[in-house]
Design a protein that fits this description.
The chain is an alpha+beta fold and 259 residues long. It is built from eight helices and eight strands. A four-stranded antiparallel beta sheet has the order 5-6-7-8. The protein has a two-stranded antiparallel sheet with strand order 1-2. Strands 3-4 form a two-stranded parallel ribbon. It is globular.
């Protein structure tokens, strides 16, 4: 597993995803500069949890130098930055789905490509205040990689290539990412609805679950004589603060509620 830093603007919800080679404070600062400050300038206020790197003296001095006010909250689940936590959950689910779909189709991709595309798909497809984050940032919606009105042969025949080049990989990955982010939103909505039901499990039972556990999941059966339990499924990521988790069953990641 690799560590990525997700930075999101609270006003327009535009986000960037940058990989960190380690969790050292110097690497955190480098990711902050490369993923945000380099393009948009230093932020006025930076909300985050109390992750080890961001509480270091090196980060504190750098924030003083750029005039950034640090607003640190709880030590679990990015409780200081609920906007970032919500978007992070969607991007993480989208990235896992995207990687599974790309590998299933034989597309040569990396984990970094999936995380970056998941973040960009959120900027292009999700809306806040009637505009997508990309549109709010640039004043216009960026052109898609594939234009259905483009009548040139090379625009469509690339889908038949068994060894696609970098441009064709980018087109396919972007289209798959858009599909995955919308599916992630639908599943997240379902998980939130499930959490609105009456609590069925004791908190101490939920506390026993950890990432990597094998669990059974419930799916509404098509026929009355069928059981609705499916498993075992692998618990990829548990978000205890939201009573949700990302699970993988038969190679397909999905998000479910623990209620």
């Amino acid at each position: 597993d690799k560590t990525h830093i997700i930075l999101i603007d609270e006003c327009i919800r535009y986000c960037t995803a940058t990989r960190m080679n380690s969790k050292l404070s110097s690497e955190w600062l480098s990711a902050l500069f490369v993923g945000w400050v380099k393009f948009f300038g230093p932020m006025t206020i930076l909300d985050s949890d109390q992750e080890g790197a961001i509480t270091s003296d090196q980060v504190g001095i750098a924030c003083e130098k750029f005039g950034i006010k640090l607003d640190l909250g709880g030590s679990y689940g990015h409780t200081a930055a609920p906007v970032a936590e919500r978007r992070l959950a969607l991007i993480k689910l989208c990235a896992v789905k995207l990687r599974a779909s790309a590998q299933k189709s034989g597309l040569p991709i990396t984990q970094d490509m999936c995380v970056e595309e998941a973040g960009m798909a959120a900027n292009l497809m999700l809306t806040h205040g009637g505009f997508s984050p990309a549109q709010a940032l640039t004043g216009t919606q960026p052109r898609d990689f594939y234009d259905p009105d483009n009548q040139s042969l090379s625009a469509c025949t690339g889908i038949l290539e068994t060894t696609p080049d970098a441009m064709e990989i980018a087109i396919r990955l972007r289209m798959m990412a858009k599909d995955c982010i919308l599916l992630s939103v639908v599943e997240d909505r379902m998980a939130r609805a499930e959490n609105a039901k009456i609590q069925q499990f004791k908190p101490e039972d939920l506390a026993k679950l950890i990432d990597g556990s094998n669990i059974d999941i419930w799916r509404e059966p098509e026929h009355k004589n069928e059981t609705g339990w499916r498993g075992p499924a692998e618990l990829i990521k548990l978000c205890k603060s939201d009573n949700k988790g990302i699970v993988q069953w038969h190679g397909m990641p999905t998000i479910i509620g623990f209620s």
